[in-house]
Write a structure and sequence with these properties.
Elements lengths: L26 E2 L1 H14 L5 E9 L3 E9 L7 E4 L4 E4 L4 H4 L3 E7 L2 E7 L5 E2 L5 E3 L1
Parallel strand pairs: 1-6, 2-5
Antiparallel strand pairs: 2-3, 3-9, 4-5, 6-7, 8-9
């Protein structure tokens, strides 16, 4: 889980520079977008953003995190993917630029799968990476 202590300062959405939007930073598959929309709807009404971040952990050193948040923090990049707006913090951005996010349901379970061109190695289960 994400550590709350790292995220104390919040800024209203209108305080973010529109030039920070960059829809080409990440790719989201049709199945991942459908799941993101469903999860966002389950969270209830309101302007929620999908935050994606990289944190320490996992068997390869870094792991991915996903959650919905109602506010954007200073320095966050907003990536407009239509019905879902993704936000990435400045520390995670170098590790996430160029990623492709997919959603799969198979014998391994239901999960988001991240194909990361910045990863030097990944663990066997694909949930963590090293850069």
């Amino acid at each position: 889980m994400r550590q709350a202590a790292a995220r104390k300062v919040r800024a209203p959405v209108d305080a973010i520079d529109p030039a920070e939007e960059a829809s080409d930073l990440i790719t989201v598959s049709v199945s991942a977008m459908a799941k993101m929309r469903a999860l966002k709807a389950a969270e209830g009404p309101g302007g929620l953003f999908l935050r994606i971040w990289v944190g320490g952990g996992g068997c390869a050193g870094f792991q991915y995190g996903f959650c919905f948040e109602g506010e954007v923090e200073p320095g966050d990049r907003i990536i407009d993917k239509g019905e879902v707006q993704v936000i990435i913090d400045p520390l995670s951005l170098p590790y996430l630029t160029g990623v492709a996010i997919d959603y799969r349901e198979d014998l391994k379970g239901a999960r988001f799968v991240v194909k990361n061109p910045n990863a030097r190695t990944t663990c066997g289960c694909g949930n963590s990476f090293s850069a």
